[in-house]
């Protein structure tokens, strides 16, 4: 079964400067929890309790966050403040974290390939922490995808409909409908112009990938923005075998943009934080 989840977290977060000058963008809080912790919790909920970070320079705070802080533990032991650490303690005690570094920013495909030694020859999840997903009354998005993987045993990308004038921000798929909300991918284009987009079904940052993806990435030349794109490598899988695109149930916030970040903050505050 799927046990491992890869988090590419080497990106700079320039849109949030100066906040991200000396702090990883993944550590920006949505209310009281860093963005990346939401992603890790979603992975764990889906049963993926081996979490691999592909990090880069200036990202050490992520490794520290997912480790015990003895000073802090000592300070607050026996006080009412201990409750604030319950969630993160659970992760530290139940997840196996590993880290590797991407020392050149050559694209998302390259970041995923950098994680190969820690993933090995098995299917795995990928979470782009910038995309905060909430399942609401449904399972988390990765858990929904793991269920599908059990049935179909192939790579799966999460998709959502976006307005036509936003397709240029995403990888966009074309597909044959298999059943409600599920497509067999026939084409994929990374960041197409509106007139070149094969649909308005955009890939969001949740993937399940079979391990042949690593060879496909190696065969993939740089594409959009001169970067090795995971979208191009997955298209090769789709052309030679089968890749599914899944219109997930729930909501997604683009926390890589200031607007999406603020929207996520308001949503989490009203619907999750206040209710807890
Ligand atoms: C990446 C992927 C893109 C996907 C997007 C989802 O782009 O390359 O295919 O649609 O994530 O957030 P990025 O946002 O890193 O530019």
UniProtKB/TrEMBL annotation:
Q: Which UniProt keywords apply?
A: Nucleotidyltransferase, Transferase
> Can you supply a Gene Ontology BP term from the record?
UDP-alpha-D-glucose metabolic process
| PANTHER family hit by this protein | UTP--GLUCOSE-1-PHOSPHATE URIDYLYLTRANSFERASE
Instruction: Give the family, as the similarity comment puts it.
Output: Belongs to the UDPGP type 2 family.
> GO molecular function: any one?
UTP:glucose-1-phosphate uridylyltransferase activity
Q: Which gene encodes it?
A: galU
- What's the source species for this entry? Maribrevibacterium harenarium
Principal EC category? transferase
Name the catalysed reactions. alpha-D-glucose 1-phosphate + UTP + H(+) = UDP-alpha-D-glucose + diphosphate
Q: Which domain of life is it from?
A: Bacteria
Q: Where is the Nucleotidyl transferase domain?
A: 10-269
Task: Quote the EC number.
Answer: 2.7.7.9
Indicate what this protein is called per its UniProt record: UTP--glucose-1-phosphate uridylyltransferase
CDD domains in the cross-refs: UGPase_prokaryotic
Sorted alphabetically, which InterPro entries does this protein's record hold?
Answer: GalU_uridylyltTrfase_bac/arc, NTP_transferase_dom, Nucleotide-diphossugar_trans
Q: Name one Pfam family in it.
A: NTP_transferase
Report the function annotation for this chain.
Answer: May play a role in stationary phase survival.
Does this UniProt record's set of keywords contain Calcium? Answer: no
């Amino acid at each position: 079964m799927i046990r491992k989840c890869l988090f590419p977290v080497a990106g700079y977060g320039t849109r949030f400067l100066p906040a991200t000058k000396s702090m990883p963008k993944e550590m920006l809080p949505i209310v009281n929890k860093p963005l990346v912790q939401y992603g890790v919790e979603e992975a764990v909920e889906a049963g993926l309790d081996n979490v691999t970070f592909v990090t880069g320079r200036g990202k050490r705070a992520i490794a520290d966050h997912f480790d015990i802080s003895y000073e802090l533990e000592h300070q607050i032991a026996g006080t009412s403040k201990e409750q604030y650490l319950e969630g993160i303690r659970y992760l530290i005690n139940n997840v196996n974290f590993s880290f590797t570094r991407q020392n050149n920013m050559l694209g998302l495909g390259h970041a995923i390939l950098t994680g190969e030694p820690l993933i090995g020859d098995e299917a795995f999840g990928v979470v782009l922490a910038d995309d905060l997903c909430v399942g609401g009354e449904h399972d988390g998005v990765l858990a929904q995808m793991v269920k599908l993987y059990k049935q179909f045993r192939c790579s799966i990308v999460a998709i959502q409909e976006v307005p036509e004038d936003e397709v240029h921000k995403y990888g966009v798929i074309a597909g044959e409908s298999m059943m409600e909300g599920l497509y067999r991918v026939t084409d994929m284009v990374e960041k197409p112009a509106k007139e070149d987009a094969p649909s308005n079904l955009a890939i969001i940052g949740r993937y399940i990938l079979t391990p042949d993806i690593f060879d496909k990435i190696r065969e993939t030349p740089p594409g959009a923005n001169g970067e090795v794109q995971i979208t191009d490598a997955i298209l090769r899988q789709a052309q030679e075998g089968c890749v599914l695109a899944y219109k997930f149930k729930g909501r997604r916030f683009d926390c890589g943009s200031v607007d999406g970040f603020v929207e996520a903050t308001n949503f989490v505050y009203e619907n999750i934080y206040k209710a807890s």
